[in-house]
Amino acid sequence: MIDLGLIRDVLSWAAFLTGGAFVLTGSIGMVRFPDFFTRMHAAGVTDTAGAELILIGMALQAPNWITVVKLGFVGAFLFFTSPVATHAIAHAAWVVGLKPMLGPELEREDAE
Amino acid sequence: MQRIIILGFALAALWLLLSGYFDEPLLLGFGAASVILCVWLAHRAGMLDPEGAPGGVFLGIFGYLLWLVIEIGKANLAVARQALAVEPKLSPKMIRVPAKQTTGVGRVIFANSITLTPGTVSVDLGDDSVLVHALTQDLADEAALADMGDRVVKIERRPV
Questions:
Q1: By the number of CB atoms within 10 A of the CB, which of B22, B79, B95, B156 ranks highest?
Q2: 8 Å CB contact of B116 and A79
């Protein structure tokens, strides 16, 4: 007889730990990357893999299906709104003329 | 009329799933009233256009989302590797990717997909192209981004 609760715990802990690792990695990247645009990519790791894996872990621990559905809504809304916010910030930086560092030498030059 | 029905069903499903009440007539009545009010307000505000209630992309979107989730997973690993590398090999690049989508919804899906994929952010939308900032040379893969654009074109062309 396989213990379903144990399998559920193991899977949700795996999701929590990998999700947490991605959040941490994104934060480390945000500190280590050199300029505004590259840091934005590191934040993307936290937004997608980190947040969604933690939500999956929570869904596996949920006491009833309605909670799973609500967590699904949270995940879906994060999935659709976080790129809008990221684009708004990147576009604002671009419009005011912030030049990204380009190439392997990370030189700041005119992009276009 | 079609869009009124689509929006009504979507709002009713959202209300039911968020409230969790399935057998309380009074509360269900309030829910129905709020759905009708919202649909009426959306109709009155002229929001029931192809952008406000995009029924056209609905059939193909699930297959596309599944594909996108796998792509996002792969890109996450690539960016995470750079973030944790002892000496990150970054070579940021700006590229222009053609955006052949004909509808506003299609263009939004394409630009959002680019931004959602770690390592690429859509910085500026032109008339028929997207300006993308990519983290490394490998992630600035114009062929892969053009392929993503073609997939969006495919789902947006489905009939309503």
A1: B79
A2: yes
Identify the sign of the CA torsion B40, B45, B49, B53.
negative
A87 neighbourhood in chain B, CB within 8 Å = 111-112, 115, 121-123
Cα dihedral B81→B87→B89→B92 (10° resolution): 100
ipTM: 0.80
Is B68 in the same domain as B140? Answer: yes
**Tens-binned pLDDT, residue by residue, of chain B (160 aa):** 778 888 898 899 999 988 888 888 899 999 999 999 999 998 888 877 766 666 666 677 888 889 998 988 888 888 888 888 888 888 888 888 888 888 888 888 899 899 988 888 898 888 888 898 888 888 888 888 888 888 888 887 654 4
Please calculate the CA angle B25-B31-B36 and round it to the nearest 5 degrees: 125
Domain around B95: 61-156
Are B14 and B86 in a shared domain?
no
One domain for residues B37 and B100: no
Q: Which among A28, A48, A94 has the least Cβ separation from residue B72? A: A48
